[in-house]
Amino acid sequence: MSSSTRPNLTFTLLWAAQFVLLLASQGSAIAVTLTVYAVSRSATVLGLMMAITYGTMIYLSPLIGTWLDRYSRKTGIMLADSTIALSSAGLAIAAFVEAGLPIVLVLVFIHSCGMSAQQLSLQATVREIRTEKNLTTVASAVALVDNIPLFVGPLIGALVYTLVSAVALFALEAVVATIVVIVVALLPFPPTHRRKAPTAAIEGFRFILTQPELRKIQASFGVVNFTHGLAVPALLAVVISTESTWPESFRLSVYNIANAAGLILGAATMLWVARRLPRPVIVVAGIVGGAVCGRLVVPLVVGIFPLVVLVSFLRNVCTQWANTPLTAFWQERTPTSIQGSVFGARRFLGQGAYPLALLVGGWCAKNGGLSTLFIVCAVVELAIAACVWRSKILQ
């Protein structure tokens, strides 16, 4: 086998294995939610569980990424997937013996750490395995692998949970994660040169914040993430409050499925677009399209449920167009030895204010400022698109 073929085969087998694990993980997420609720019978505790999950993914990412940079990417993936396997096995046992809530929440925290480490390790592996100068097409394929489980996994999880049990879902994830660890151990990764890993999470922040171009692009998309957080509760309010013969639970399910389908279609179309359009054009088109479809148009279709779902679907297609080339940009520009630290810092800087945005957006939705909120978000996002286009950062 030629030296050029081997990395491509490693990349394909690695992501095929991770795809199966992501399916299992998305399915077990259903079991986690239902298990926590069965133990607590409290919406407040469900909120605490979500805070643990997303808080770990956002606020601990710089520390987790820095820790991963101390190992080879192959070892990092194996450690992350092993953490998922062990925590899933723990959750299976906890569900079987009906363990107390504190034990379940600790296992949820460990599982979230494993998922965060998995995401950061896989992102940082792309540049080491793939040699293309422009990684946008590769990032599009990875985004497709990432998002299909968001659509299919919950359906599998709901089916297994209904027909078997939560224990079966957790056990399935543990077994799949263990098999994936073995597969990764057998894959021939490219040799890595000895490198000086970052000693503190601050190095990832320093890499971003001390370079004007990177600081500007990070700030731009941090603002876009904030406006997205503002609009999420408002859009949910529109979906739930729309007059329809369909029950609220059905409307919410259709809305979530449409969002996942939009991300999948966005990633699929990126595979074609990435080879034909310059990166800045794709990113700006994604931001502008999202601002128009998912913001400006919403006040015009309030009360018409199919159109609300359609504009949300189109917004997610555009979101994929904006985000996928950006991921490739950072993979190309960041030294491989500190990609875990930098990607963790990126997540913190880009999503750290997201929970606050959700609270503010929820307050606006409650107090009747929906149209104004959508218009303000659209104006801000269009301004960001203009800044990105004029700056030529992504050239």
TrEMBL record:
SUPFAM superfamilies reported for this sequence: MFS general substrate transporter
Gene source species: Corynebacterium felinum
Subcellular location per the Swiss-Prot or TrEMBL entry: Cell membrane
Name of the protein this chain belongs to: DHA3 family macrolide efflux protein-like MFS transporter
Keywords annotated in UniProt: Cell membrane, Membrane, Transmembrane, Transmembrane helix
Topological type in the membrane: Multi-pass membrane protein
Parts of the chain that traverse the membrane: 45-65, 134-152, 158-187, 219-240, 252-274, 281-314, 368-389
Record keyword Cell membrane present: yes
